[in-house]
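Sample pair:
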Amino acid sequence: MDKFKILVAEDDKAIRESIGIYLKNAGYDLVFAADGKECLEIFNREKIDLVIMDLMMPNLTGEEAIMELRKDSYVPIIILSAKSEDYDKVMGLDIGADDYITKPFNPLELIARVNSNIRRFYKYKESKDDNIIEIGTVKLNTLDKSVSVEDEKIFLTSIEYKILELLMSNPNRVFSVDEIYERVWNEPAIETKTVTVHIRRIREKIEINPNKPIYLQVAWGLGYKFVSPKRR
């Protein structure tokens, strides 16, 4: 079986080399980019399974590179940055990153985050065909716009369905309330409180205990995400 290939975009050569040593020892193949522009060039010509992205890089910043990648790819992206303010983390997740690690980093944490993102994303991909998105006991059919839980069909309004489809199509990715509104309603975020109401209704229909959701979870201060339930 081929190894997973990780693209490391980092302008500091010493950090690139240290990441390479850690992840090669963990069993991954590595390719490297010294800036955002080179990152996109490599990504477009090679099969990349995960991207580790610095933010402060020449030619094209990490933020700009992430936004370009997210135009047509959902490959896992982990930000690795010296920017440690909450604002920077929120912004990084809002533009499409899946995870955020601050420098200086713990090598064991980096490996664990890479393993986790690889496992979650590719387990999800293997369980999906052209029309079915299935995570845990929740199954969404994009062809006939139906949803079932434990093979029992449930009724969703068109807005509830669109929110659920957005979140399930991007498992573990945090969407801000504004982003959900703009993506579902196709207009600037104005009445964002309605998103919270729809989220509550969706939980009532798909969760065993809506007050303790295992699928549709809140990321406090950031937004909402749809996650795979943890194995017990």
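The chain is about 40% helix and 20% strand.
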